[in-house]
Write a structure and sequence with these properties.
The complex is a heterodimer of chains A (155) and B (242). Chain A is α+β, with helices and mostly antiparallel strands and 155 residues long. Chain A folds into 2 domains: 33 residues; 116 residues, Nucleic acid-binding proteins (OB fold (Dihydrolipoamide Acetyltransferase, E2P), Beta Barrel). Helices cover 30% and strands 34% of the residues of chain A. The radius of gyration of chain A is 23 Å and the shape is flat. The termini of chain A are far apart. With 242 residues, chain B is an all-alpha fold. The two termini of chain B are 32 Å apart. The chains are: A alpha+beta (155), B mainly alpha (242). The interface between A and B is large, with 42 and 41 residues.
Amino acid sequence: MNRRQNKIITISFLVAVLCCSIFLILYALRDNVIFFYSPSEIEKKVSNDDIADGSLIRLGGLVLEDSFQRGEDNYVSFVITDLKNEINISYSGILPDLFREGQGVIAEGYIEIIKFKNKDNILKKQLKFNASNILAKHDENYMPPEVSEALGLEY
Amino acid sequence: MKNQFVNPGFLVNYIRPLTPWCGGIAILLVMIGLWFSFYNSPIDYQQGNAVRIMYVHVPSAWMSMGIYSFIAISSFFGLVYGHITAFSLAKAAAPIGATFTAICLISGSAWGKPMWGTWWVWDARLTSVLILFFFYIGYIVFSKSFNDFSKGEKFSSILAIIGLVNLPVIKFSVDYWNTLHQPASISKFGSPSIHIDMLIPLLIMFFAFIFIFIHLLMIRLQLELNNRRLNIKNMKSYGDLK
């Protein structure tokens, strides 16, 4: 009986130590485990000089309503927002089927930080994002089209 | 009564007549479930017909996690109480669970391409499920890589218990971090955010997968127990076992 209890204690201890170490690892890596940054996080990082000009990042948020514009040769531009901050995206290529205004999307590409001085001689930073890849997110709601129409959702 | 079920011979006598019944129920449920998911369920307001991949993807994801917990718990009882049946159950379940995980990854990939626009991304949910698949493979390889059965059982059981840490990471990955994968629709607080006409085929497919698992587990358990008997016989004849 004693040997059995010893085994239970050893295994429980092993699992507890593992849980703690995995938690600490994931906590330390929390900035790298996330798949994309929101516009607000990027604005904050740029103002803290954590992101260099021309670095490759993923930016996620909603496509701002009435911001989508189509240019020549598959060139598109739109605005990604998290309802606090907005970043302009330019992209040329094929968009996923679910891409719409108001839809959650993730843009993968290079950020351009343009530094300029405004008329009061204060250094300002403006962000431009050149996406090389656009991914669409969909939410966890599943329903037939009739139901979504009844709920007043536009798609 | 309790000890009888731990006895392999008794257990095999008990499950042998049940095996074909489980298989029959599984086939019936798969047929009903597939009919529901292809012909008698609505399209999604955003995803259209691609939502039908969910009826295979989500149940196999649940199965992959459920079977892993089953393996880890069996391994725990095997290690603590030394029951042959517990080890054999865990070893019998591992390839089935690995297959469900592979189905989950492949169907998810096929779903991701039309909806997200990519086959694969390294976000927290997808990566942690891939790690679960590697744990399954590692468990199977480890349990077979020793001449002495009981040694392999012991080491692979420890590996299975270590891998248990991965399950909460999979479950909560979509809540704690920004991921491309959407959060849970059914296993969350509050009412499920899935329409009832889509929930019914999903649950039928889930029960079908459970019966497939039980059916295969029963067959594979008998195989594992026979393998074990053969292995002991071989070891005796080669003089490995004194």
